Amino acid sequence: MHRLHFPPPPDADGAKTGDNSVQARRLDGFAWPARFAYIKIDVEGAEQLVLSGSEQLLRLEAPMVWSFEYFDTQLRLGFSHVELLQAFARWRYGMYLYRPALHRLVPFTPDASGAFPAREDDNLLAIHTSSIDHVARRLCGLE
Q1: Strands laid side by side in the 65-69 sheet
Q2: Exposure of 88 in the CB half-sphere (CA atoms within 13 A)
């Protein structure tokens, strides 16, 4: 979506102003450092669309960590939770919960019954497999 979906404010004379268009760009369209640590995605369910516009970044194993909200907004755009997890897995990202009180990463994988670990909030971390040790050390205060 490339437009704001609320009415524009009136100008000083009370007349409605023009279009509130915003530029939409793929993440691959920006200049990024060769390797960087973190991106927070907050796109209200369009995470898979963000990933599809980030293939060059993902090939570079960048960033090391993606943070995103994992709740039912994906469903309203026709994506399932499983598809989102699989999309990250294709690029060799594992899913984790961070427990700040414990300084601990918890794998977000289903147990034998298919149940995922309980979440304390709506955020998941997708951490590239090549970076998990580094990220764990940084988050857990070992570095």
Answers
A1: 38-41, 65-69, 123-128, 93-99, 104-107
A2: 25
Assigned domain for 125 exists: yes
CA distance 61 to 71: 25
Specify the pTM.
0.79
> Does residue 17 lie in a domain region?
no
Residue 58: how many CB atoms within 10 A of its CB?
21
- Which domain covers residue 62, as residue numbers? 27-139
Element (H, E) at 89: helix 81-90
Rounded CA separation 135/14 (Å): 52
Whether 63 is covered by a domain: the verdict is yes
Tell me the residue ranges of DSSP E strands in 84-135: 93-99, 104-107, 123-128
Model confidence over 100-114: pLDDT tens digits?
888 889 999 888 898
Structural domain count of the chain? 1
Is position 132 within any domain?
yes
